[in-house]
Design the sequence.
């Protein structure tokens, strides 16, 4: 576990060097929030996601654009409830959900404009692939091969946004 924590700490240091985060402008979930969400949704969150939300889950400075993405603990709860209600509504109206659409039980971690959602499958205690679900066209794609790859993608998006002037501190 120490190696994984070190890997994540190196990632945070890299974000700081790149000007993506300032330690004074980030905030993580508490252990109680993690446990509440795990209990609420019946999942064991992989360690790499726990490390991420423990450091950046509530406020992530410029890493995640809060105008474009929803990712904090309340949003994660809302997304997971929303998707369940959305699927239940489809079924109540006589529609079907292709159970093979999702590679396991999805746990939604990031939402974009309330139509595109990123999710993991909490089957491994360390890591997960990250998938993208487009609720408008009902399509699932693998977005990244691991959570760390996903975090690096977020970093790349942030750096590009900073360079273009789209993301800046106010």
Sequence:
């Amino acid at each position: 576990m120490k190696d994984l924590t070190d890997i994540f700490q190196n990632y945070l240091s890299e974000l700081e060097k790149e000007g993506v985060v300032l330690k004074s402008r980030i905030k993580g979930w508490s252990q109680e929030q993690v446990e509440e969400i795990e209990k609420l949704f019946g999942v064991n969150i992989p360690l790499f996601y726990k490390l991420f939300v423990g450091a950046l889950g509530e406020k992530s400075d410029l890493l995640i654009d809060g105008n474009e993405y929803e990712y904090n603990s309340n949003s994660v709860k809302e997304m997971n409830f929303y998707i369940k209600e959305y699927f239940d509504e489809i079924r109540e109206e006589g529609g079907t959900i292709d159970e093979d659409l999702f590679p396991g039980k999805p746990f939604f971690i990031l939402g974009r404009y309330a139509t595109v959602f990123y999710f993991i499958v909490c089957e491994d205690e360390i890591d997960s692939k990250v998938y993208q679900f487009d609720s408008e066209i009902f399509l699932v794609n693998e977005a990244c091969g691991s959570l760390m790859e996903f975090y690096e993608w977020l970093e790349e998006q942030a750096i590009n946004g900073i360079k273009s002037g789209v993301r800046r501190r106010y």
About this structure: Helices lie at 2-17, 31-41, 47-56, 73-92, 147-164.
